[in-house]
Amino acid sequence: GKVTIDNQGNITTSGFVVASEVKTNKLTVSTLSATIGTATLPANQLNVTVQSSEASESAKVFITPTTPTDKILSVANIKNKESFDVSILIPTPLDINFNWWIVGTE
Questions:
Q1: What is d(CA 64, CA 38) in angstroms, rounded to the nearest whole number?
Q2: How many CA atoms lie within 13 A of 49 on its CB side?
Q3: Would you give the distance in Å from CA 79 to the centre of its chain?
Q4: Which pLDDT does position 7 carry in this prediction?
Q5: d(Cα 67, Cα 62) in Å, to the nearest integer?
Q6: Against a cut of 0.90, is the pTM above it?
């Protein structure tokens, strides 16, 4: 069928799960997904383009620097189903590595 439950209680579905509320102790997002990833803003650059087919103006893009920095990273120039830019106002002499996560909204 389209929904299976194994003997350990794991549920697998080929469709959507729709609920008014979800409570969990852990959320795992596949790294094969176009909704989550890592990127680098190169030294001496003001922006970098991140390719993702899940980019959209209605989605929320969360950025978390993983390199110590005093810079504020901003999301800009979102191109639907293509990409988004991560930008800073003043260049830095060091690369800034960051994680990104796209959460769709309706």
A1: 9
A2: 7
A3: 15
A4: 93
A5: 16
A6: no
| Residue at 90: amino acid letter | I
**pLDDT tens across 27-72, in order?**
888 877 889 999 999 999 999 999 999 999 999 999 999 999 999 9
Distances (CA, A) of 41 to 5, 20, 78: 43, 38, 16
31's tokens: 């790294």
Selection from 90, 86, 89, 83 nearest residue 99 by Cα: 86
Mean pLDDT score of the chain:
93
The residue type of 60 is K
d(CA 96, CA 62) in angstroms, rounded, equals 15
What letter does residue 33 receive in the DSSP assignment?
S
- pLDDT higher than threshold 90 for residue 16: no
| Contacts of residue 102, Cβ cutoff 8 Å, sequence gap at least 6 | 34, 35, 36, 52, 54, 55, 56, 59, 60, 61, 62
